[in-house]
Amino acid sequence: MADEETRKDGRTCKNAPCSCAVPDNEKFCSVHCASTEHNVQIDCDCGHADCKGDY
Ligand SMILES: [Zn+2]
Ligand SMILES: [Zn+2]
Predict the structure, then answer these.
(1) From the CB of residue 27, how many other CB atoms can be counted at a distance below 10 Å?
(2) Residue-wise pLDDT tens digits, 4-54
(3) Which ligand is closest to the CA of 21, given by its number?
(4) Distance separating alpha carbons of residues 36 and 44, to the nearest angstrom
(5) Is 21 helix (H, G, I), strand (E, B) or coil?
(6) Separation between Cα atoms, residue 11 and residue 20, nearest integer Å
(7) Ligand 2: distance of its center to the CA of 34 in Å?
(8) What's the rounded Cα separation, in Å, for the pair 1 and 41?
(9) Sign (positive/negative) of CA torsion 50, 28, 17, 11?
(10) What does the domain layout of the chain look like in residue ranges?
């Protein structure tokens, strides 16, 4: 049961403004987000339609 809850929650991209889900073995949803690892971003330009950080 707890396992199912963890899976439902999922993982999201480590780029702060990005809300995209990523696979368990990935930290970022895209090359764009990976390139922002050491930069603070206000919005996200990963290009995914369901990203809430894309203004
Ligand atoms: Zn994004
Ligand atoms: Zn991302």
Answers:
(1) 13
(2) 444 455 689 999 999 999 998 999 999 999 998 888 888 999 999 989 987
(3) 2
(4) 9
(5) strand
(6) 8
(7) 8
(8) 36
(9) positive
(10) 1-55
